[in-house]
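User: Hi! I'm working on a homework problem where we have to compare a predicted structure to a textbook description. Could you give me the structure for the chain below?
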Amino acid sequence: MAVDPFMIEVVRNGLSSVAEEMSLVVMRAARSPVLREAGDLSSNLTDADGFQIAQGQDVPMHMGVMSFTVREFLKVIPKAQLCEGDVWMLNLPDVGGNHLPDVKCIRPIFYEGKIRSFSISLAHWGDTGGGAPGSYFADAYDCWQEGLRIPPLRIVTKDGIDEEKLGFVLANVRAPETCRGDILAQIAATSVAESRLHDMFRKWGADHVEAIFAAMHDQAEVQMRRAIHDLPNGVYEGSDSMDDDGHGGPAAKIRVRITVRDDNVTMDYSGSDDNVPGPINTTRYITAASSYYVIKSLLGPDLQASGGCYRPIEVITRPGSICDARPDKPVVGGNHETSQRIADAAFRALARVVPARVTAGGPTTSGLALFGACREDGKWVTLYETHGGGEGARADRDGADVIRAHMSNVMNTPAEIIETEYPINIEYQRLREHSGGHGRHEGGRGQERAYRMRVNDVTLTTMFERRDVAPYGLEGGEEGAKFEMILRKQGSNEDSPLPGKTNIRIHSGDLVIVRSCGGGGYGAPEQGH
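Assistant: Happy to help. Predicted C-alpha cells:
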C-alpha cells in the first residue's frame, strides 16, 4: 500500500502522544509515590508482531527492554490465545524482561476482529515480596529470593478483572492496597492507548495505519544506517568495572568490542566476566537496551525509536556472563547498576571516534536507598528513593549538577511527600561541593541528602555503585567524587560508611546521609587550577 510521507509524520507524532498520555495516566492514578512522584514507569506501543512503534519520554532501560517484551511474550502465548479485552501481566526476566519489580501489563489492541497493535505499561512496584521490604535482597544468591515471579498471566478479560488471579498476586506483596491501585493505573493506561488507536483506525483505515507502521520501521532503518555510515570503519574496545560481585567480592568487569562496518554496528560483550553471586547480574535484554541507547543517543537522538531503528545494530552476549546471566541468578540490581556500566563501557569505546559527543563518567548508578517500615496497623510502607549526581563534563561544556544520566530518567520524591507518608524526616538537602572532577571543563556536582528516622525497626536497603570505582575523566580530566552512604546512629558522632549492597535495620533518631557522586572532568586541568 502506498504511504504518503506526510501521513508517516502525522501517525508517528500521534503515536508518541499516545505513549506520553499513557505515562501521565499512570502517574495521576497510581497509589505509590515511586510512580506518581518519581515516575519510575514507562509506556510503549508496538505493531501486531511486537516491534516497537512509539514510546513515552520515560526510562531508557525500560524502553529498550520493551522493544523485546511483546515478541518474547508471543513466543509463550501465541496470538491465537489472545482475546479482545485481555490484559496480561508478567515480570519474568527471561520473557523480555529485566527485574521483578518492573511489572508489565500488555493489552492486545484488536480492530475489526484482528490484532493491530499492543500497548504496554511498565511500572516499578514498591514491593513484589521476597527476602526484604521493597524486594531488594542484597544477600540473594538465586532468583527465587527476589520476590514473586509472574509468568504471562491474563489478569483482565472482556468481563473485567479476574479477582481470583489478582488476589493471588496481592497475597504475595507487602502493600496489597497500594499495589492494587498501581495495577489499576496500568490497566487504565493500556485502555487509553486502545481508545486512541481505535480513533486512528477509524479515521484513516486500519490497513492503512498498519502500512504506515511498516513504513516507519523502514524509514528509521534508513536514517540509522546513514548515521552509522558516517562513522569510520573499525574495531573499538571499551571496558568498565562494577564495584564488586554483588556480595563484596572481586570487582566484575564489563568489556565490549564494537565493530563498525559500513552501515552496521556489532556490539560484542562476550568478553565480560561470568555471572556473579550477588544481585547485579542482568539479562541480554538489558544489555541490548543499553547498547541501543548508546548508539541512538550518539548518532540518532531525533530518530523514532522503533524496531526499524535497531535493525542495523547487532548485540552479542555470552550466556552465563554478567551481561546474559543464567535464569536462576539474582538480577534486581543489574537493571539499573550493570545496565549503566554496560553503557559506560560502550561510551568509552566510542570516545575517540566521536569525542565531541561523549561525556566523562557521571552519576551512572541509581544510588538507591530503600526504606521499609511496618505501621502500627500492620500495613507496610516502602520508600524507594534514587539519587542523581554530577554529570560528566564534555568537550564543549561543564557537567550539569545533580542530574540523572544514561539509562535512568526518574525524579526524586519531594521532602514534603516523604515526611507526610513515611516515618522519616529530611534533615537537609544540598549540593555536594567540590565533588566534580577538575578538567578543562569541570564535572558536575553531586548532592547530599539526610534522612532521619522517626520510628524504630526500619529496614534500609542500599543498592548503589561508584562507591569504589569513581566516575572517570576523559582526555586528562580528573575523576569525580565517589558515591557515599553514611549511617550515624542516634546519640553518636561516629559516621559508619555503608556497603553498596546491604539490608540492615535502623531505629528512631538514626540518620542516613547520602552523598552522590560527582561527574568526571574533561581535558587536562588548567595550569594552577
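For your comparison, note the following. The CA atoms of residues 440 and 523 lie 5 Å apart. The first strand starts at residue 41 and ends at 47. Good luck with the assignment!
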